[in-house]
Structure formats: structure tokens, C-alpha cells
Amino acid sequence: MSEYAGGPVAALRRIAFLLERAREDTRRIQAFRSAAAVILPLGDDEVAARAEAGTLTDLAGIGPSTAAVIADACRGVVPERLAKLEAEHAGPLAAGGRELRALLRGDCHSHSDWSDGGSPIEEMAMTAMELGHEYLVLTDHSPRLKVARGLSPERLTRQLGVVEAINEHLGGAFTMLKGIEVDILDDGSLDQTDELLARLDVRVASVHSKLAMDADAMTRRMIGAVRNPRTNVLGHCTGRLVTGNRGTRNQSQFDARAVFEACRDNNTAVEINSRPERRDPPTQLLELARDLGCLFSIDSDAHAPGQLGMLDYGCERAEEAGIDADRIVNTWPRERLLAWADHG
Questions:
Q1: Which H or E run includes 315?
Q2: Peptide bond just before 281 cis, omega within 30 deg
Q3: Mutual orientation of helices 44-53 and 64-74 as an angle, nearest 10°?
Q4: What is the pLDDT of residue 40?
Q5: For the residues 226-250, what does the mean pLDDT come to?
Q6: What is the mean pLDDT of residues 155-184?
Q7: Is the pLDDT of residue 344 over 50?
Q8: What does residue 140 show for φ and ψ, rounded to 5 degrees?
Q9: How buried is residue 168: exposed, middle or buried, by Cβ count under 10 Å (0-12/13-18/19+)?
Q10: Rounded CA separation 173/136 (Å)
Q11: Residue 337 has what DSSP assignment?
């Protein structure tokens, strides 16, 4: 076996990350993240002693599979499970877009376990740092999306305090930016108080309900949101699903030219949603937004740390569409991004 110096916590986290990239079952993934959390507070000597004595599984949250990983890592050898996953799922997720991916400084759309994500904010931040991000915008859902545990004003206020504490702990090497994926309501208004929206760094506005509404009404709805001075990014604009375990869903119908002209005129970026089940906007609409002079944000819409790497897919699509890197807001340094997002 190959030598391994990363330690058992790193091995468990890396396995969870690679399982997320492979879109494996959430419960299996959480077993490895939970095991890492169990042994993290223990001293290295205690973990190594338990591995040697074969008593790791006496700890609540440690099963045979995770115990085997810990034992191998303690002995300084690459765990078999980790080696297999590295061979199958490490490396770029897409063949193209590599130059553009190297230019991205962060990600403007991500979720934590405060709404419908699978991991704590701290884990999302740690993984973003490991991927080389300078910033990650935390954009949990707004109140109306109850199925996704959308944040009430009270919960969002508490979350802002958590983000501040994390940033204070990190000391400026990386910044978790305060954000939201705010629902676009039927009349085009945004599903959060203006006072709270004003406290955020970046706001992604998305349609999540009545996706099949009449095209004229949907157009008015989207333009209303885009014109709101608090809106920075128009998220997954058609709402379509093209593959995946959620099934497929037709794209919403609206006057794309009118919506994208409103984005351009109001300095709102069109999201290139990198999730493979979305590929949103479709290529024809992506090229229309390009030709109309829109800004873009290439976002992972990650609901787990391992999904942060999905930016690869969006970069490949943006490169294929010939979109200039400077029109992509998350190629910008943090201060330029924040100045742009504060246009309201």
C-alpha cells in the first residue's frame, strides 16, 4: 500500500468529498463526515490506540467501514476505499473550461444544512478553501420554500452571526460572504424583508414555484425581480431539469430577450448554473444573454461540499459559448464583486 500522511480525519473528509462528486447516497456520505466529527476532538494518541486495539467501533458513530479507514490512516497507509475513489472520481469533472476555471475566485451560490444542504457552514467553508476559493457566498433559501427549510428572518439573522464568527476565526485568508437564494414571488417581489436583504453581500433571486405559469406573467415576474435593486444574480432562469434522480422538468416559458435586456440594464448577472441536472440557461438562451451584453455568474449551486467542484461544468459551457472572463463576476476579486453587488 502507498504511504499516507494526511491523518484519519482528512481521509474521512476526502472520502465524503469524493462520494459527493460521484453523487452517491447521502446517508453513506454522512457516515464518513460523522465519523470525522467523532474523532476530531480526540487526541491522535487515543485514536491510534483504539485503532491498534480494534475498539474504534465502540465509539458511537464509528462503523466497520469508517473504522477500517481510520485504522489504515493511523498506520500511515492510504485507505483502500480512498484509493479507489481517488482513481475513479478525482481530477477535473469536465474536459474543457480549464483556463476559465483557473480564473474563478469564488462561487456565488451554495447551500448549507441550515436549509436543504447536507453539511454545516464550516464544512462548506473548509472545502471551498481547499479548492482554492477566495470566497464563497452562502445562499440558503428564503422562507417561502418550506420544502427546503427556507430561513425565516429570525433564522437568517442568526446565520449572519455564525458567518461573522467563522470569518473572524479564519482571519481573512478566506471569506464566507453573506447571501441568500431568495424566491421570486408571483408578483416579482422578493421573499425576504428589504432590511435583511440590505445586510447581505450577494443575493441570488430564483423562481421555484409555478414554473409553468403563462409566459407573459412569468416574464413580468422575472423582470420585476431583476429590476429590484437588491437582486444581483438571476438564478437558474428556466428552472428546467434535464437528468438526475429528481426526474426531468420542462423549462419555464418567458420572453428571454426582455428578461436578459432587463438583466443587462440593471447590472444583474445571469447565472450559469453548473449542476449537471440543470445546465441552465440552455445553450440558445446562454448565447442570447451573451449577445445582449449580460454579465454572468458561474455557480455550483452546491448542496454539499463535494458539489462545489461542479463549477467545472459551468466553466466548460461558458468557454464553449465564448464568454469573456471579465464578464463573469466571480472571476473578480472580492472587493470588486462586493462593490458591484452593492449597486442597490
A1: helix 311-320
A2: yes
A3: 110
A4: 94
A5: 94
A6: 96
A7: no
A8: -70, 165
A9: exposed
A10: 12
A11: H
Burial class (CB in 10 A: 0-12, 13-18, 19+), 53: exposed
Residue 1's pLDDT is 61
What integer is the mean pLDDT of 321-344?
A: 94
C-alpha cell belonging to residue 224: 420585476
Q: What share of the chain is helix, strand, coil (3-state, %, to 5)?
A: 50, 10, 40
Q: Mean pLDDT lowest for which of 22-31, 32-41, 72-81?
A: 22-31
Report the DSSP beta bridge partners of residue 280: 273
Residue for grid cell 440590505: 198
What does the DSSP 8-state code read for residue 327? G
In this structure, are residues 207 and 219 in contact, taking their beta carbons and an 8 Å threshold?
no
Please give the Cα distance from 335 to 344 (Å, whole number).
16
Pick from 130-144, 171-185, 241-255: least confident: 241-255
Single pTM value for the model? 0.93
CA–chain centroid gap for 74, Å, is 32
Phi, psi of 302 (to 5 degrees): -70, 135
Contact 9, 39 (CB under 8 A): yes
Q: What DSSP element (H or E) covers 135?
A: strand 135-138
Q: Nearest to residue 33, comparing CAs of 48, 53, 51, 11?
A: 11
What is the rounded CA–CA span in Å between residue 174 and residue 329?
A: 17
Tell me how far apart the terminal alpha carbons of the chain are, to the nearest angstrom.
57
- For 218, the 3-state DSSP assignment is helix
Q: Which three cell numbers stand for residue 163?
A: 458567518
Cα separation, 227 vs 204, whole angstroms: 13
Q: What pLDDT is stored for residue 333 in this prediction?
A: 96
- Side-chain-facing half-sphere of 275: CA atoms under 13 Å: 22
